[in-house]
Write a structure and sequence with these properties.
This protein has one domain (about 5-240): Purple Acid Phosphatase, chain A, domain 2 (4-Layer Sandwich), CATH 3.60.21. Helix content is about 35%, strand content about 25%. It contains 8 helices and 11 strands. Helix 2 (about 60-70) links the parallel strand 2 and strand 3. The protein is globular, with a radius of gyration of 18 Å.
């Protein structure tokens, strides 16, 4: 039996070619060793629309397409950096776009997949920003602008985000435990897999007398990180170098 692999928060960027190469190596080594690959958001540092020239990133996209063409299902979820990825991008890379959240039915289990940012409800300023940029009208207006205009707007938003992050505590930027429990109950699940917080760990919880597991995926800044998953009783968080 081949495992499913989960990754998130690669934040691929031309400024970090070593991580792009690490990702390509990862795909090459995992070829024929896995069943499906799930990317749970923030695959790239930012995405301005499917007409983005993606300079410096096309080698990674080519590797993903080869991985898909060799018989692997690749499922891609939007993150808070790449929520404008559309069907053209998915076709380019051989991916299937999935909604956030997404229920993965595996045998008799329902596993909730998320990017994870909607669990961070203490960060009210970010949640307001998220609500704005996920609005279809905002996205339509943004995509109607020239690529140059979008680039300037994205740079300004990134700078604002960096400044605001400096002022926020670690607790505010992490998940809210009550929101986590509410999410378990509302989705009738015993397992959640997500990224976003860059704090890889496996959390065991009590959800109204029922055991629950929250698996947090790591980022790809200094090394790779992935979840090797066979079933709800057999999974391992691993580093990749």
């Amino acid at each position: 039996m081949k495992p499913i692999l989960f990754i998130s928060d690669l934040h691929l960027s031309p400024e970090r070619p070593d991580i792009i190469q690490l990702f390509q190596k990862f795909l090459t080594e995992k070829q024929n060793q896995i069943s499906d690959l799930y990317i749970l958001g923030d695959f790239v540092e930012y995405w301005l629309g499917d007409d983005d020239k993606a300079e410096g990133l096309n080698a990674a996209f080519d590797s993903l397409k080869i991985f898909s063409d060799n018989g692997h299902n690749i499922f891609l979820m939007h993150g808070n950096r790449d929520f404008l990825m559309g069907q053209n991008f998915a076709d380019r890379c051989g991916c299937t776009l999935i909604q956030d959240p997404f229920i993965l039915n595996l045998n008799s289990d329902q596993i909730l997949l998320m990017h994870g940012d909607t669990l961070c409800t203490d960060d009210t300023r970010y949640q307001m920003f998220r609500s704005m940029v996920r609005n279809p009208d905002w996205q339509s207006d943004f995509l109607s602008k020239s690529l140059e205009e979008r680039t300037l707007m994205a740079q300004a938003m990134r700078e604002t985000s960096k400044e605001e992050t400096k002022e926020k505590s670690d607790e505010i930027m992490d998940v809210n435990q009550q929101t986590v429990k509410k999410t378990f109950i509302e989705n009738n699940t015993r397992m959640i897999i997500h990224g976003h917080t860059h704090r890889p760990d496996i959390h065991k919880l009590d959800i109204s007398g029922t055991p629950g597991t929250r698996i947090v995926l790591g980022d790809w800044y200094k090394k790779g990180s992935y979840l090797e998953f066979y079933n709800t009783d057999n999974f391992t968080l691993k580093d990749y170098y």
